[in-house]
Amino acid sequence: MTTLPAPSAKKLGLVIDLDTCVGCQACATSCKEWNAQGDGGPLTDTDAQGADISGPWFNRIHGYEVREDGRDDSRMVNFPRSCLHCETPACVTVCPTGASYKRAEDGIVLVNPDTCIGCKLCSWACPYGAREYDYTQGVMKKCTLCVDRIYNDNLVEEDRVPACVRACPTGARHFGDLGDERSAVSQLVKERGGFDLLPAMGYKPTNKYLPPRARRETYAAGVAPLPKGDGSVMEKLFSWADKLLSAAPKVEARANPQDNSDKLEG
Amino acid sequence: MNPAYSVILFTTASGAGYGLLALSGLAAAGHGPASSIGFALACVGVALALITTGLLSSTAHLGRPERFLRAFSQWRSSWLSREGVVAVATYPVALAFLAVWSGLVEAPALIAPLGIATAALCAVTVYCTSMIYRQLTTIPAWANRFTVPGYLLFALATGAGLLSFISVVFGRFQAGAGNFQAFLTLILIFAVIVLKWLYWRWLRRRKPEHSMAAATGLGPGVRQWEVPHTARNFIMKEMGYSVARAHARRLQQIAMLLLDVAFIATFISPKFPWAVAVSAPALLLAAWTERWLFFAQAEHVVQLFYGQEKV
Amino acid sequence: MPAKQPQVNLSPKGWDEIKTTTCYMCACRCGIRVHLKDGKVVYIDGNRDHPVNKGIICGKGASGIKQHYSPARLSKPLLRVGERGAGEFKEIEWDEALALATNWLGKVRAEDPRKLAFFTGRDQSQGLTGWWASQFGTMNYAAHGGFCSVNMAAAGLYTYGGAFWEFGEPDWKHTKYFLLFGVAEDHGSNPIKAGLGKLKARGAKFVSVNPVKTGYSAIADEWIGIKPGTDGLLVGALIHCLLAAQKIDGESLSRYTNAPWLVIENPGGADDGLILRNAAGTPLVWDASGGGSGGTKVAGTFGTNPSLLGRFSLPDGRKVVTSFTLIAERFATEAYSPEAVAPQCGVPAETTRRIAAELAHTAFNDTVELDIPWTDYLGRRHEKTIGRPVAMHAMRGISAHSNGFHTCRTIHILQILLGTIDCPGGSRYKPPFPKSIPPNVKPAGKPDQVKPNTPLPGPPLGFVTSPEDLLVDEQGTPQRIDKAYSWDAPLAAHGLMHMVINNAAKGAPYGVDVLFMYMANMSWNSAMNVPDTLKALTAKRADGEYVIPKIIYSDAYQSEMVHYADLILPDTTYLERWDCISMLDRPISEADGPADAIRHPVVEPDRDVRPFQTVLLDLGHRLGLPAMTKPDGSARYPGGYPDYIVNHERAPGLGPLAGFRGKDGTAAGRGPVNPDQLKAYIENGSHWFQELSDNMKYYRHVNWDYLDWATFFGFLPRPEPIIHQLYSETLQKFRLAARGHGKVVPPQQHRKRIETYFDPIPFWYAPFEGEMVSGDEFPLHAITQRPMAMYHSWGSQNAWLRQILGRNWLYMHKAKAAKLGIEDGDWVDVTSHHGKIKVQVKLVDGQNEDTVWTWNAIGKRRGSWGLAPDSPEGEKGFLLNHLISDLLPEHEGGYRYSNSDPVTGQAAWFDLKVRVAKAADQTAQSAPQFPALKPVRGKANV
Ligand SMILES: Nc1nc2c(c(=O)[nH]1)N[C@H]1C(S)=C(S)[C@@H](COP(=O)(O)OP(=O)(O)OC[C@H]3O[C@@H](n4cnc5c(=O)[nH]c(N)nc54)[C@H](O)[C@@H]3O)O[C@H]1N2
Ligand SMILES: Nc1nc2c(c(=O)[nH]1)N[C@H]1C(S)=C(S)[C@@H](COP(=O)(O)OP(=O)(O)OC[C@H]3O[C@@H](n4cnc5c(=O)[nH]c(N)nc54)[C@H](O)[C@@H]3O)O[C@H]1N2
Ligand code: SF4
Ligand code: SF4
Ligand code: SF4
Ligand code: SF4
Ligand code: SF4
Ligand SMILES: [Mo]
Chains with ≥3 Cβ pairs under 8 A against A? Predict the structure, then answer.
């Protein structure tokens, strides 16, 4: 099973919008939570209340700062990172047991926890740090693209998306078929210039990242900064107020349902 | 990469074992029956012991060693699986070879073919091992032309050192200038020295091919400001190992020094056979140090996500 | 020949039941669905039908499981047996605990009810707790608002009848320009995130004003890295630009605000600065439309055409001026020009002018028109609802400064000048807001109102409108333990919780007998000046008795505070109890309509704990508090809190929950008690929401239909318009008192301060600490931010969250560090005028250069929260709180005011000034380190 299946037409994956992610960790914790009760067994943490706590997470949010040319401040970018469900991933081919495999029907890359021997070679082969070893169970784990949600009959239709996508408060995570050019995610990738991580590695990730948009320090064309006052601010205001008064519409007394004038007068 | 002792022990011990076994096989192919049962037993026994120790220690690296049998299934794509298959296949052949070489089973005609088959299997096993590392494009320090010869040469050199030692113990070590064994060992050590020197120079000088910019797609000005978790995780423990430059340098010098010592000891061994008592352990220690560095100096591209600018 | 791929169960069902309730991993109160398997909580996600979060959940909310099953949970009432702080407790039964508490409290109530200080922290049942305090008869009650964001609440409620703080929200749907001041996370954590996502998707412009560029600021289209404490200048300069360009909404100013109201100018007179009113007390305006020079008319009457600007003479010779003239004169001065403020706030003048232009452009040229006819309070029908799509939001970056009240008011003035309050695309109210300005509740607790064994005649917290409302005696001495509503902090609408412990320990203004606290970690992250607070908690009198003799505390977890209490009442977790997120407190309303919610026990406690609210009602009955006791002496709410939620009525038909009232559950807002109300809530996903009809959704302060409806609902006493108060007459009344006018005047020592800070027109002044300490000695601003995945101190016990953030660093600008010879990862000494800490730095460049900052409340005292003593939270984590003094440096005259806003008493956490230098000691441990706390018996080790 370690050999890769023929590329599937359906390529399920995530599109992550780096322009919108605020780094809130909702996706990461929702992922942990969903998978901690899933079939893969609990994602147990070791030394939970101690000094060296550690545990498997399938999604982690990095924080980067990016210096741009000609500026002395940086742009801060929150950067969620999980399995990219690559098309030609060595994490699958290096596996000696066949526990690591890519699904023929939708391209999801999975680990079979029942046959994995925990040799960790797949984690060495993954450039993206997406494989997480479960020390308590001795097997490798990773993002499943919530394969146990997206087809799950026990969930209502709109919940059949990955836990991280459902959770994301800003809507920075999108799930769909990147093999289908017309899908919303493919369109998004096209419009926003979605890109691959480490393309030179040749793993052909399915997941795409949308770049932070260019800074927008001009709001709309033709909006010039307000002029510098010439010291006569009050005078100008007075003439503005006068105009306002004379231009005030003559409001004809329509049926006035609440006659304030006599109630308040006096 | 985290220099896990189980893996270092595995590669150095099994390397030396396969080297010894291969050289014994070749020697037998050239010379015919062993001079004594003891000698054959010692050569093949020590070799298999080392190989077995190595393989066992490698299972210590597994999370579920009880499932090890599954590792033989994916030889079509996985070098690790292939290594396992060949390693296992080597045992019966090596035992058959031992039987005929030692004379326990009288079949001199089979000595050469079995010796050569054993040597070939050893070579293939070590090759498979080396390919496990060579194939990992995620670790540029491994995915290069030095890895395969490095493993093969170290296996042969340490094997040769051991063979010389056993020969001396069994009085089979030829004194004087015509000692081919010492000559071969010298050449192997020399090759190792050259190879490692070239490798380390290459490692020092190589232009990193992967950058944080490409990893994150955020351009050349990118830098990590916040770690995803303040708690250390598997990736950081496994791939985040970094060894101080000065420390690595010192260890490289130590490895080179050990190789030099082994070289000199080997050089004088035709005159002072017991010098092999220096060269063999020096070679093993050099191999151990080199292997430790092989891991510790290897940077994984995932480090790009964790703050390293270039790999 | 690929082998068969493994079969995966694509439809696992890891739960057997899903219950909806309300999250309490923070105060945002999202709807959640708790998945249960064999009675155990296995998964929590957001409830799609819930008005607050509409299905999304945050990092904390999704980690609720680990909080609920935290090993740090308390499991039984505890009675202190050793010294305070030593962690020696014995477990006692509830009966004993309640009897003890009743005994302690009963004595206080019979002697002097003031001697009970009852303070609750991050709680959401202030409807109950405030009422309880009032029944008990003590005015020494408040919740956490005083150290949180009362500046925002007060500035808003005294200006436009709403507030940023949970009482309003940007119109995410229509906004085209969003200006965010000093927000890292906010109370509305999820709605803000969802809103920002929407803005991003729509391409609206988002500008974040914040010294630090993380989180929300990271995704802003434009980041303005302002110097802390100077927003008032920046906003003043924006107003300056708008005035100079006459980009102001004159129509709404003259109709919906007090801009045209006439202010009496009579320097030295008792009426100087008061609003000119007719005999009925109605404000007057100047109307020149009748011809001639015009004359006064009653404000807010149909057909008048009030002048916005001008000084006029009255027939009786008095001079008057429109309040807008005064506002304009303040901000038209050079002092507020972009050029003048640039060096102080660090914002280039060109940027300020550009933003002003963008605001004007958006508000006036890029309007939103909704096809919604509505009628204003003058009876004028508007065929369309016009929106000026500029929205603003601000929080603690503004409020946690000693100039926060005025700065926040300045922001509101900016909004009002642009005409963006409660219009499409602007900043919208959330019912029950808008309220009268200010809400018409006065604090009770005047000297003659506090009597043994007698309830107060009103609630302890309220809104003063003149010095007569203050809680001071004839000499001007504060009546409350926290000095709220005294000359120290006259408009302290939420009390000053940060002052309680230290004041009580000093006996200034007096000592207390019992300190009763709930849900506030007052010996650690919510204390200013932690070291002295610990001393105050353990100080003893000469006779060996503690200076604060009795401390009762309710917590659910082993917080740092638990060790300093004498009697601990262990609470349930949020999944184990009834709660009521009520219109009487801080409901979950949306801009589109009122909403409230409940929590209900989705799992039963597995420990001997009781829900605090029920315990409080029980105590109330044991103490014989009238409203909690029936005439026959039996408990009025024998069923505890759920009984109270359903059956309690504040006024006929008005109870804690607005939904499903009446016998058949169909009444909303007002209606008879419905015994099945809670069931109806649970069936409805534990919340209730009523969407307003379209014509009532905007301009609600002056929207006829809305005002009528809100009056029926009990939100307003009368259907009267809520006229925005640009000029605050209330403040002027205090100022007049400072000049010696009126019955209640401040003692001499406070006069200058009151005169200065009770300016009826907002203004900027430098934050106090920055002014009082030397800028050379303490050149850097030090602030904190909320980490998105941690809620104050609670998160650290959470095995998931503490992996994400188990320690903090001090973030410093690279350039600044380079100048100071500090490198990434160095340990540094951070020194304030008050103290010193040693911490590790991390260098970044996305922040203001003169600022250092860290994540709030990550540092833990070793041994607390069920964590191993060598945990990173204690070893490397740290608090800035040790550096923050509870008192300001000495004033002339030697008096030390609290480190708070002079108007509201809001704790000035972010005024802190420090210097940073590489530490001599580079060992990897933060300092100071207090002795490790001894774990008390909790769930883990029962
Ligand atoms: N330096 C600095 N200090 C600050 C701030 C800052 O920005 N910077 N912010 C300030 C602000 S705005 C605030 S609001 C305060 C917050 O400070 P606190 O109000 O002290 O908030 P928490 O740390 O959350 O502590 C609340 C306590 O409630 C307990 N608790 C949690 N859940 C329950 C429950 O269900 N029942 C009961 N009975 N108890 C429970 C927790 O265990 C904890 O002990 O901190 C203030 N302190
Ligand atoms: N995840 C999470 N959510 C929370 C809480 C929590 O602990 N964790 N706590 C809740 C509570 S009690 C509260 S009060 C709210 C508070 O919510 P926020 O108001 O978001 O509180 P802070 O995180 O203190 O954010 C203050 C922000 O103001 C900036 N700032 C500081 N000084 C200035 C200044 O002078 N000018 C400007 N423009 N900005 C400044 C800081 O950099 C920081 O970004 O959050 C609530 N929500
Ligand atoms: S991201 Fe890593 S684990 Fe996932 S498919 Fe690609 S190589 Fe494999
Ligand atoms: S750790 Fe498991 S999945 Fe990964 S390569 Fe080894 S056997 Fe395969
Ligand atoms: S798709 Fe599922 S498994 Fe993957 S990161 Fe998202 S929640 Fe985790
Ligand atoms: S949930 Fe969304 S916004 Fe939050 S960290 Fe994940 S992707 Fe970013
Ligand atoms: S924002 Fe607060 S209430 Fe909402 S899910 Fe997160 S923790 Fe819970
Ligand atoms: Mo707060």
Answer: B, C
